[in-house]
Every structure is written in structure tokens, then in C-alpha cells.
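User:
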Amino acid sequence: MGRLLYARRSKALLAFGIAVNVLLLGYFKYADFAISTVNAAFGASLPLLSVTLPLAISFYTFQQIAYLVDSYRGETRKYGILDYSLFVSFFPQLIAGPIVYHNDMMPQFRDEAAKRIRLENVAKGLYIFFIGLFKKTVIADSLAVYANRGFDVAQQLSFVQGWITSLSYTFQLYFDFSGYCDMAIGAALLFNIRLPVNFMSPYKATNIQDFWRRWHATLGQFLTKYLYIPLGGSRKGAVRTCANLMIVFLVSGIWHGAGWTFVFWGCLHGAAMVVHRLWKNAGLRLPPALGWLVTFLFVTCSWVFFRAATWQDAWKVLKAMFAFDELRLHVLWPAIWENKLMLFSLLMLLLVCVLAKNSVERMEQPRFGWRTAAFLGAVTAVAVLYLNRVSEFLYFNF
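Assistant: Predicted structure:
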């Protein structure tokens, strides 16, 4: 009887803890979205709360939920308040991930050897940090000019302009998030802490499941362990599996942003995962090259909804991307020639994303000599010079 009562109390405390975290996240991140939706649906004029979003609440909310669930399952040790506070607020990964777990971080925080300077970690940390800074300030922020112009400024776009707009954002988001992940890993290494790899060349993916193993990998792991599997995973038949996938990606879409375009983006990826699961279960396979092309084009098109401030902006860009009536040589060639440098730059970025080693791979096998020092010095100098531009990390908004 005592054990049963204890189990019930534990479960009630778990539910209470999760509810508090979700409600706080909901209030700060989605209150104005809910009010705007009610106003639009019923013609009301309820005032917005204009709540200031606490720094990193999306990330530490998930970390706290994971800790609560693991604690309920008996998978945690008895950590003190300082240990727990450090785990939740460790600044290199706080703003944009990765989402970390106690069993990855707590042992490192308690390791006495980690409190001594390790020159190898300092060298690796500086190496990947400044590569990440270059990705962010030089590449991502330069591409933002073209993405913003197409999404927010232009009233209409041609076929070529539509693709320049969408691909600019596709690579802007890639190098923005990749750059931050690199800087998080680098900053943590200066403290002898190894963060999990969160970004693993996602544009090399040959199917949508592979993409989500590479893009924001720790978010996928969290949703799989704490949502997909508790819902039943793939153990309760094909229909339930498809429903669970849709729920997971609906949550992913809502988590990324307070807007119906984010919800729709999540539903698109959920539907893609369902199609992939059914296709795979039927024993069908695409050739790797074709699989890559389909995946990349789908991801690029879906990013339009992720970026667009309004439905009208999304349809404007998509309409231009599929304006096949412009696919006539006398119409297409002048547009290509006029934008040749930008198109060439986008092609080069695509080749880098698909063919080159990523920065984590390069960090693990560096050759620290004068050539590496010269390369890193040049990268750092250029990145610092570009810091005078006003910008922000895209994932900070999500």
C-alpha cells in the first residue's frame, strides 16, 4: 500500500513539474499568438500582452522536462542545487542548443581533471569557435540580405529571384545554425566540456529521416525519447505510428515558433516522415542521388514557410519558384546572366555543404601547424571585421 501511494505521489509530482514547465513556456512564448488567433477568428480586439521572452526558455524547458522524467524513472543520481543549476544554465549551449542531458554533462562537471587547462582542448575549441563565427558573420549574414529582400521587401519575384530568395535562406539558416553549434562546441571545449554534436551536414541527407538525424539532432532525440516512444512509437501498428509521427512534428513546429506557418512547416515534415515510413515498409528505395535531390528540394521548399512572416509572403516566394511559364530561353537566360554571381555563389555553397567535411570532422583531425594558424588567423580577422553589422542568431527566435 505504501509503495502504491509513493508511486502515485511521484507520478503526480512528475505531472505537476511538467505542467509548470509547459505552462510557463506557453505563457511567455505563445500567449500573444493565442490572443492574435482569437482576434482573427472571432473579430475580437483583445490587447496583446507583449511578453518579453526569457533567454533560452525553449531549450532549458526541454532540458528540465527530460531531467524530471529521468528522475522519475530512477535514472538520475542525487545532485545538489549547484550541480543542477550549472546543468541548466551552462552558457555555451544555452541560447540555441544543443539540448543536453544530465548523464552527458554532470560527470564532466564533476571531473577533477576537467578543472585543469588542456592545451589540446583550447586549440580545438578556438579552431572550431572561429570557424563558426566566420560561418555566422560572413556567410549567413551576407545571405540574409538576399533572403530578406525577397521575403520582406519585393512585391513580386521572377522564377530566378524566387529560387535565389529560397536558396539564400536555405543556406543562411544552415550556416547560422551550424556556426552557432560550432561556437557552442568551441566555447565548451575551453572549459574541457564536450557538448553532443547537434549538426552533422544535414544537406548531405538522402531521405527525410536521415535529415532529421543530422539537423538539430538533440531535438530529434528528445522528441523521440520523451514523446514518440511514450506515445507508442512504432509498436502499435501502421496507423498509430503515422499518427505518432505527425504529433511529434506538430510539436516540433510549434516549439520552433509561435505562428501558423511554423505549425504548417511541422505538419509538412510530419507528412514527409509518414510517406518515408510507408515507402520504406513497402520495401522501396530511391537511388541515393535521386533521394538526395528529392530531400533537398523538399527541405528547401518547406523552409519557405519556416521563414515567411505571413502566408502571403510564403505564397509569393513559392509561386515564383514554380513559375514554369518563365522557363523559356529568351526569358530565363537574361535573368540568369543578371544574377550570375549570386547563382554561382549559391552553387559553391551547395557543393561545400554536400561534398566538404564539416567543421566537427575537421576539428577532430586538425594538423596544428603554421598553415592551420595562418588559415585560422585569416578566418578570425575576416569574421571579426564583419561583426560591425547588426544581426542575431536565427535560432534565438525559435
